[in-house]
Amino acid sequence: MAVEQTLVLIKPDGLIKSLTGNILSRLSETRLVIIASKVVRVSRELAEQHYEHLKNEPFFEELVEYIIGDVHNTHRVMALVYQGDDAIKKVRDIVGHTNPEKANPVSIRGAYGRITTTGVFENVVHASSSPEDAEKEIKLWFQADEVVGDIYPVKDAVLKEVRQKVWA
Length: 168
Ligand code: DAT
Ligand code: MG
Description:
The chain is α+β, with helices and mostly antiparallel strands. The protein contains 7 helices and 6 strands; from the N terminus they run βααβααβααβββα. The structure holds 2'-deoxyadenosine-5'-diphosphate (DAT) and magnesium ion.
């Protein structure tokens, strides 16, 4: 068994329905280690990059609006990185099938997900599905110094003239 990392997102429906604690409790059954976490206001650019592999699907625009939070009127997603042996499969098993109607009823998506009348799978959480996807997704959602441990190669860089918000 290989040590893996996997990205988990608690989507806006999970946050607005106060499911955060339940979801984290379920994920703690895996005994994996959390090595990064934060709450993110998702930009359209981030949403489109995250779901790039689905850009030709008819539901793409609704999927983007869902992850941004426009659908649930709460612009928050909780992003976490879990690490440990076989992390990707362990998390996907507890998360359940992509389609909430097909998901095991005791999985997170089976218990809390729904399909909207327009056909969008509001499935509460995202979990990476391969080591390649996990690396791409973790690098998309987190900076190297937001993750505990150098999980992928890093380099030192001195950044100049980066515009960012600081405490006043
Ligand atoms: P997963 O999130 O299980 O990895 P995915 O990467 O194929 O599944 O798709 C990403 C999201 O897109 C998924 O969580 C819900 C939505 N989605 C996928 N297939 C769909 C479909 N046939 N109809 C509606 N939404 C879909
Ligand atoms: Mg996927």
